[in-house]
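Subject: Sanity check before I submit

Could someone independently write out the structure tokens for this chain? I want to compare against mine line by line before I put it in a report. The sequence has 393 residues.
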Amino acid sequence: MMYNFSPAALAARIDRLLDSVLPQQRLVGAVVLVHHRGQQVYCRAAGLLDREAQIPMRGDALFRLASVSKPIVSTAALALVGQGRLGLDDPVARWLPYFAPRQADGAVAAMTVRHLLTHTAGLDYGFFQPPGGAYARAGVSDGMDAAPVTLAENLRRLATVPLAYAPGERWAYSIATDVLGAVIEQAAGMPLAHAVAHLVTAPLAMRDTGFVAADPARLAVAYADRTDEKTPPRRLLDEGEDHLPFLDGMAGFTLSPARARDAQAYASGGAGMVGSAPDFMRLLETLRQGGAPLLPPALARQMGESQTGELALPFWPGRGFGLGFTVLTDPLAAATPESAGSWRMGGTYGHSWFVDPAQELSVVAFTNTALEGMAGPFVMELCQAVYGGEQNP
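---
Independent answer below. Compare away.
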């Protein structure tokens, strides 16, 4: 199938969408980038960076990345694998002797680096659990709150909770990338923030990306979805902690927007980074084009191939999981125009992105409105706008 990804066609389709959702107050602001065949074919900063101060969104705005952190940190781990300093099948216990969670039957888990990268490690997220669940009782941070805890202490708390399943038995989105961050620290011999800079962001000149906002003046204000059509999105509390519902019977997200400016907050590999849309596009395009200078081509290919076989991914029908993000295996089941083999993920604060290697296409949409920008109708509306349903003869 041939699609029209020309700048004019994309501008007509995506601008129409943005010019609709912003007045509807479904989003406060957004930065959307599209690259095709290695060239930028669409770029727009729309809406407001700070609604109360009436500051327009800017193309180099900084966003709290939440789970957009995961592919960045996963790439850092794979860079160490490519250098022969870390093995995909290394036992986690080799690098973190103090981290020895047990299975429900009391057996010490045989957890590997591959399990962490593919989210098959038996771990969970507190926001998936009922209020007052096991992670909350153990004081485990999901990496987005203001808990005054170190990474090592958080993992010690995590290790006191029995695993949800034996490693490799199932797939479950989880805090595994935080554990991976601690492994990276040991394998690289430096704090995670320094390791990610050395292995990923510095080589790609991603100067806006790190675990603390590089320029607080460019940091987009965080908002939560409107509760009805008459109510605008709610500004998330900047000091202390705020809460977002997830699904009925689950604890929901505990967020501290101020964490993005707190150099003392622990470096959460799964949720703690801050960065810009152009920086993240640079990483996606690097991976799509073979991984150099970060990864050898074979490892970059493996990163973008499903590693989870027949394991089902809740919330993501038709998708498997690679070494850091989802991989589309069945476009019909996923009800998407993306090509089989496409990569996709999002971030709690309002982000989505995808790469369609078959179409040589990369798309980044960072917004400051949760959860619409990550899991609301806007995500599929943008995908449809990119592909357009327009076929060329």
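---
OP: Matches mine. For the report I'm noting this point. The radius of gyration is 20 Å.
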